[in-house]
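Supplementary Methods, section 5.1.

A reviewer requested that the exact input to the structure prediction be made available. We therefore reproduce it here, unchanged from the version used in the analyses.
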Amino acid sequence: MKSELHVPSDLKFLGIVENWLLGCLEVQFKESIDWSRQSSRLRLALVEAYSNVVRHAHKEQPYLPVLIRLELKDRDIALEIWDRGEGFDLSNYLPPSPNDKKEGGYGWLIMNRLMDKVEYKLQIDGYNCLKLQVSVPETA
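The structure derived from this sequence is encoded token-by-token as follows.
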């Protein structure tokens, strides 16, 4: 199954983004996965990715759309979040230390802990793409 969503760069649309993802997953997987664990994990990863685009990549440009693609194959989930911002240079990223008491900078860590694979590609035909991949276990 493949689906995509074009949504404005505005956090008011966060609920729509979450509902779209969870709706697609329910249609595909029905009762074959543990929703209490998996939906929270997937929702958090997507919310982090989308809110980063809105707050950083498309900062003060709500007219720029965010494209979110979802591909479901067997038990594999691939999410792509496309933006038109300047991009984020991962070579300059330093994970924050809990002792620093910083409010930001944890998104990359969160996504990498929640997902099996996280890739970020800068400037593909004027877009940046964050790809999140995970395989979900069957309900025991």
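The chain has a mean pLDDT of 87. These observations are discussed further in the main text.
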